[in-house]
């Protein structure tokens, strides 16, 4: 059965052995030196054409047009532990427990940040501000909010509206709701009419209902400027 040609047979073409002496020092004796013809190199124009032909298809795909609006959803949950501060929306809420977290554990701000990043198609808060980075140990979550808002404006968007829901069994949030919402508006640079905040219990079901954790959901609409 015939064997496939090796790589050298594709690139080199043998010619009759030359008996003429070679001028280059250190060469084989004339009687043992074969004369080989190399396949001519393609011109730069041909090489460029071949390279372009084998580029991935995505390289030639134009960028999609800027969307008139974008929607993002954020979710966060933290375990509650005794003798820690409970920070919600940048406000210190009196309670006998607080969020266990690498930063200040502000479940609402973390949730809003993730919603904005998600709407922009960016990595989540844990990738941009990893808990393995000592810079964010105990950090005020307003730092994360300011960065998310900056990225939103750099991408050419502004907040259309935001709807957030806190889920916790204790404490009651109603006495602090407007203060939290006002601070959230300041961080977002948004009018209060486009920022909504709700709070729900978990009907004493699972860790949320047993006052062992706190969670939040947020949906944002970003509008093209």
TrEMBL record:
In terms of InterPro entries, this protein maps to:
MECDP_synthase, MECDP_synthase_CS, MECDP_synthase_sf
For this protein, the record's NCBIfam families field holds: ispF (TIGR00151)
Task: Please state the pathway this protein functions in, per its UniProt record.
Answer: Isoprenoid biosynthesis; isopentenyl diphosphate biosynthesis via DXP pathway; isopentenyl diphosphate from 1-deoxy-D-xylulose 5-phosphate: step 4/6
Q: Which GO terms describe its cellular component?
A: chloroplast
Required co-factors: a divalent metal cation
Question: What EC identifiers does the entry list?
Answer: 4.6.1.12
Q: Which reaction is catalysed here?
A: 4-CDP-2-C-methyl-D-erythritol 2-phosphate = 2-C-methyl-D-erythritol 2,4-cyclic diphosphate + CMP
Q: Where is the 2-C-methyl-D-erythritol 2,4-cyclodiphosphate synthase domain?
A: 69-222
Which Pfam family, an example, fits this chain?
A: YgbB
Q: Name one GO biological process term.
A: terpenoid biosynthetic process
Protein's UniProt name: 2-C-methyl-D-erythritol 2,4-cyclodiphosphate synthase
Q: Which HAMAP family match?
A: IspF
Any one GO molecular-function label of the UniProt entry: 2-C-methyl-D-erythritol 2,4-cyclodiphosphate synthase activity
Q: Could you tell me which species this protein originates from?
A: Miscanthus lutarioriparius
**Enzyme group, top EC level?**
lyase
Which superkingdom, per the lineage? Eukaryota
Keywords assigned:
Chloroplast, Isoprene biosynthesis, Lyase, Metal-binding, Plastid, Transit peptide
């Amino acid at each position: 059965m015939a064997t496939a040609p090796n790589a050298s047979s594709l690139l080199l073409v043998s010619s009759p052995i030359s008996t003429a002496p070679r001028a280059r020092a250190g060469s084989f004796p004339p009687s043992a030196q074969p004369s080989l013809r190399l396949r001519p190199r393609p011109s730069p124009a041909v090489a460029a054409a071949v390279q372009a032909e084998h580029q991935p298809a995505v390289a030639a795909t134009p960028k999609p047009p800027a969307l008139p609006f974008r929607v993002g959803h954020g979710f966060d949950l933290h375990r509650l532990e005794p003798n820690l501060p409970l920070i919600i929306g940048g406000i210190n809420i009196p309670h006998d427990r607080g969020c266990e977290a690498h930063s200040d554990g502000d479940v609402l701000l973390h949730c809003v940040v993730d919603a904005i990043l998600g709407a922009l198609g960016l990595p989540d808060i844990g990738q941009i501000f990893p808990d393995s980075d000592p810079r964010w140990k105990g950090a005020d979550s307003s730092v994360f909010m300011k960065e998310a808002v900056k990225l939103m404006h750099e991408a050419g968007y502004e907040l259309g509206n935001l709807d957030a829901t806190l889920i916790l069994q204790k404490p009651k949030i109603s006495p602090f709701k407007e203060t939290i919402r006002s601070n959230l508006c300041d961080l977002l640079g948004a009018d209060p009419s486009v920022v909504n905040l709700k709070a729900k219990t978990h009907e004493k079901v699972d860790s949320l209902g047993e006052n062992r954790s706190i969670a939040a959901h947020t949906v944002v609409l970003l509008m093209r400027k």
